[in-house]
Design a protein that fits this description.
The complex is a heterodimer of chains A (254) and B (331).
Chain A: E1 6-15, E2 18-28, E3 33-37, H1 44-52, E4 59-64, E5 67-69, H2 74-80, E6 82-85, H3 97-101, E7 108-111, E8 114-117, H4 119-133, H5 149-163, E9 167-171, H6 179-194, E10 198-202, H7 206-212, E11 215-220, E12 223-229, H8 235-243
Parallel strand pairs in A: 3-10, 3-11, 6-9, 9-10
Antiparallel strand pairs in A: 1-2, 1-4, 4-5, 7-8, 11-12
Helix pairs in contact in A: 5-6
Chain B: H1 3-14, H2 16-31, H3 38-47, H4 49-63, H5 71-86, E1 87-90, H6 103-128, H7 133-152, E2 157-160, H8 162-169, E3 171-172, E4 175-176, H9 177-195, H10 197-207, H11 209-214, H12 219-245, E5 247-248, H13 256-266, H14 278-298, H15 304-330
Antiparallel strand pairs in B: 1-2, 2-5, 3-4
The chains are: A alpha/beta (254), B mainly alpha (331).
């Protein structure tokens, strides 16, 4: 892999005297799937928020496509090509599926110089995207509050697959999904990565990490406790890294 | 349930307040003598124009998940500013512009600007200081009314310039132009809320502010615009109020805020944000106005109005909860 897509260089975050991240360094290549593992409170979600523009790091720097990068808001991160699926779903349940899919990126046409929502065009795009992914939702005009947890998560996943970008961050994306939907979700991730998009996936489930990831990065107490290729490690070794029994491969990515 | 019955049931639920309005008008027409005439209906629309315009601004911020308690005081301040400038007796300065019609755009611009400025102050404080809209606009409700008292010295302005009064007198299809202005406002803002990205974003912000922020929508900017709109619309309501009363008094419009809240809630807007449409709010305004007119016609003491409005709000909230249960069964 030539130039990495995103490089984290000693990224740290303090909340007052509490150090949530003590200096994280690793990198993600194009088309690479990195599984981010770690115990509760290890700092995984904080790290995702820093990359996605929800939080500013206290120190350290990031390089995105070789250039200095810091997103001050999710809008900036999105503009740079970073899509995020958060643990707590980011859907507006009071509007329909189409409105959620296009949140902040609505298709409009001009009527007397005023931008007007082009509902028909948007509905067509959403219908196609969901059909491609094999997601079945009775009506795209249903308000999301009337959909099940699984259907909601499917909308979020289809949304990131559709918009793509350059880097996708997934914070426990399969928490509400059944077995079959999870399998399809993992397929989606491989499919996205084949398009040359970098993927960071946070998960608690070792099996998922080994199914989908090229590389496994373990965070422990706010530092990288392990950074290994999937085919050079085993679930037991990774668990040891998470609990801190070994420090195999500690430090920044080579 | 077939898709068709389901669809028609949804339609009824979505427009319940309109059915209520028709029902109430039908009942009044049957049981109250002299109610069923064109003049009465025109009067209902006419009497609701100030309240209607004010409810639009209030509904916009409530749909966006916030609140604006200051609309009543803002309308009073705008009315007072117009009154002092263009009234010829009382504390009015009697400013004359030539040609006469020039006073219309100038007075309107003053009213809108006064409202917009207070809207900016509200919006900036709420967004930048991340304070509760309830507290900030409650403060505005008090200090803006105070400002009305200060600049008027507690006295009133009378005899608004005829060129401006013209809007309250000139009729088109049986309704004064002021009523048409209110109707036009409802049409325009209904379209903005339902058909433009800005309107869609307001609804989504009201539904889940975090999600819209993460999706890259400028939540703060949208909210400030909503508060500025609410202020400017309240300013327009004040302008209409000044025309209606041909001047301004220090206690002009007291109590309108609660009627506006009642109209918004009856119109199907949820105080939790994210739910509601402006046509519904207009039906709510007309419903209140119809009940007032009925009370007048029956010769009941006007004091009953408040009791009935209160019960109506209660009924609207209960009905909203009932609609939610039906919808859940539909899904």
């Amino acid at each position: 892999m030539s130039e990495p897509l995103l490089v984290l260089d000693n990224v740290a975050k303090n909340y007052g005297a509490i150090q949530a991240l003590r200096g994280i360094s690793f990198s993600i290549g194009r088309g690479e799937v990195v599984a981010l593992l770690g115990d509760n409170g290890a700092g995984k979600s904080t790290l995702v928020k820093i990359i996605a523009g929800g939080l500013e790091p206290t120190s350290g720097r990031m390089l995105f496509e070789g250039k200095e990068f810091l997103a001050r808001s999710p809008a900036e991160a999105k503009a740079a090509g970073i899509e995020t699926v958060y643990q707590d779903l980011s859907l507006c349940t009071n509007v329909d599926v189409v409105a959620n899919f296009f949140m902040g990126r609505e298709i409009t046409r001009k009527v007397l110089g005023v931008p007007v929502l082009d509902e028909r065009a948007m509905e067509a795009v959403v219908g196609k995207a969901l059909a491609n992914a094999g997601t079945r939702i009775p009506s795209l005009r249903t308000k999301v509050e009337h959909l099940s947890g699984g259907q909601r998560q499917a909308i979020e996943l289809n949304r990131f697959v559709h918009w793509g970008g350059k880097l996708v961050l997934l914070d426990e994306p399969f928490a509400a999904l059944g077995v079959e939907q999870t399998r399809r979700g993992l397929d989606m991730i491989r499919q996205v990565a084949r398009q040359g998009i970098g993927v960071v996936i946070i998960t608690h489930i070792m099996q998922q990490a080994f199914q989908v990831a090229d590389r496994i990065v373990v965070i422990r107490h706010g530092v990288v406790a392990g950074d290994v290729a999937r085919n050079k490690t085993s679930p037991d070794a990774v668990i040891n890294m998470i609990t801190g029994e070994t420090l195999a491969g500690a430090g920044p990515a080579g | 349930m077939s898709p068709r019955t389901r669809h028609s049931l949804e339609l009824v639920l979505d427009n319940l307040v309109w059915f209520m309005l028709v029902f109430v008008l039908a009942v009044f027409s049957m049981f109250i003598p002299n109610f069923f005439q064109l003049g009465i209906f025109a009067n209902i629309v006419e009497a609701s124009s100030v309240l209607g315009v004010m409810s639009i601004g209030l509904a916009l911020v409530i749909i966006a998940g916030h609140m604006d308690l200051s609309v009543e005081s803002v309308a009073a301040l705008s009315a007072m500013a117009v009154g002092i400038m263009f009234c010829s007796s009382g504390i009015g300065l009697g400013v004359q512009l030539h040609p006469d019609w020039l006073m219309v755009p100038v007075s309107l611009a003053i009213a809108l600007a006064v409202g917009a400025i207070i809207g900016v102050i509200n919006g900036l404080l709420i967004v930048r200081l991340k304070m509760s809209a309830f507290i900030i606009t409650l403060a505005s409700y008090i200090w803006v009314r105070g400002l009305v008292l200060v600049i008027s010295g507690g006295r009133s302005a009378q005899d608004l310039a005829p060129a401006i009064r013209w809007f309250g007198i000139q009729r088109l299809a049986g309704l004064p132009l002021t009523a048409w202005i209110a109707v036009a406002c409802f049409v325009i803002f209904s379209l903005i809320l339902a058909k433009t990205p800005f309107g869609r974003h307001l609804v989504m912000i009201g539904g889940n502010e975090t999600a819209t922020f993460r999706a890259g929508i400028c939540v703060n900017r949208n909210l400030i615009v909503a508060f500025v709109l609410a202020g400017a619309i309240a300013g327009l309501a004040g302008w209409l109020l000044a025309i209606r009363t041909s001047g301004a008094t220090a206690n002009l419009g007291v109590g309108l805020l609660f009627n506006a809240f009642a109209a918004v809630v009856i119109g199907g807007v949820s105080l939790k944000g994210g739910v509601g449409t402006l046509p519904g709010v207009y039906a709510g305004v007309l419903l209140l106005s119809a009940i007032n007119t009925a009370i007048n016609l029956m010769g009941l003491p006007a004091n009953f109005t408040q009791v009935i409005h209160g019960l109506l709000v209660l009924a609207a909230v209960l009905l909203d909860a009932f609609k939610q249960t039906i919808r859940q069964k539909l899904a």
